[in-house]
Design a protein that fits this description.
globular; 2 domains; Cytochrome Bc1 Complex, Chain A, domain 1; 300 residues; 6-stranded mixed β-sheet
Length: 300
């Protein structure tokens, strides 16, 4: 059975490689260190403007967990030129949508607009980077929002603490052992100056990747990017030195109990290669084949 599975997976990979769609893109850096990727696709009159900041839960002070996720919320509070509470109104009134998310490794923001509003998306993201308003009012507002999210998704959700327990056993030294949402007491104890320092350190152009994809004219979009993002000063270089984990030499078995759970569940987790490694794509395909959804092998 194992040989058949591996052969089938190999055939899938070969077939996907032979029929893969070529995605053309332009990639370059601004003088301030911001990485830019442009992809032109004129099949539909829409454009997505997104910025990924290379900061996640792994970058936090162990006594101030949850900062990266908190900023996912905080940086929608407004800017010098976008009043508090107006961000989503501007987006929707111009036919757009937007969102953000955070992981252990990065924080990601995006807007989708009709392509005639491409400049608006670029301007808004440059405002988020250059002119964020980080004050006590915004911190207090988002503190309550994040607490409610934690109650909904973790504390009162069946299996909500599953991943938290798994990570504690998978990692003993590396900050991956923590959760993205963090500990609420850390956010409560943090000062405004600590939030401002986090923003100054990590929300800099040389720690960001800007991606614009869709119905665009490349030369004009390049000029917009230079006009809006080019003048933003480069930040100090970020030095990362994470502790190395000891290898797992034998299976780790653990049990966790949660009053919200009525039906027991089993989770198997593995340390694998970095997302930068080609093997991660192969592993993702194998995981999908085995366990993703009702058509997967393990579900059947």
């Amino acid at each position: 059975m194992k040989k058949i599975l591996l052969l089938f997976t190999g055939l899938l990979l070969c077939n996907s490689n032979s029929n893969a769609q070529q995605v053309d893109y332009i990639e370059y850096d601004l003088e301030n260190g911001m990485h830019v990727i442009l992809h032109q696709d004129n099949t539909a009159p829409v454009v997505t403007t997104s910025v990924m900041y290379h900061v996640g839960a792994k970058d936090e002070n162990p006594e101030r967990t949850g900062f990266a996720h908190f900023f996912e919320h905080l940086l929608f509070e407004g800017t010098v030129n976008i009043p508090k509470g107006e961000w989503f109104t501007i987006v929707t009134s111009n036919g757009g949508s937007n969102n953000a998310n955070t992981t252990d490794d990065r924080t990601y923001y995006y807007e989708v607009f009709p392509s005639n509003n491409v400049e608006l998306g670029i301007w808004m993201e440059s405002e988020r980077l250059l002119h964020p308003v980080i004050n006590q009012e915004g911190v207090d507002t988002q503190n309550e929002v994040v607490k409610e999210e934690k109650r909904l998704r973790v504390d009162n959700s069946p299996y909500g603490k599953f991943l938290e327990n798994v990570k504690l056993h998978m990692f003993k030294k590396h900050p991956y052992k923590g959760t993205t949402i963090g500990k609420m007491e850390h956010l409560d104890a943090a000062t405004l100056e600590e939030f401002q320092a986090f923003n100054k350190k990590y929300y800099v152009p040389n720690n960001a990747t800007l991606v614009i994809a869709g119905d665009i004219d490349v030369p004009s979009v390049k000029k917009m990017i230079e006009d809006y993002f080019g003048p933003i000063p480069r930040g100090e270089e970020i030095v990362r030195d994470f502790p190395k984990e000891d290898p797992i030499t034998e299976p780790i078995r653990a049990k966790a109990y949660d009053a919200n759970i009525q039906i027991p569940a089993i989770m198997a987790a593995y340390r694998t290669s970095s997302f930068k490694d080609r093997d991660s794509y192969v592993l993702d395909m194998i995981s999908t084949y085995l366990s993703d959804g009702k058509t997967s092998k393990l579900y059947k």
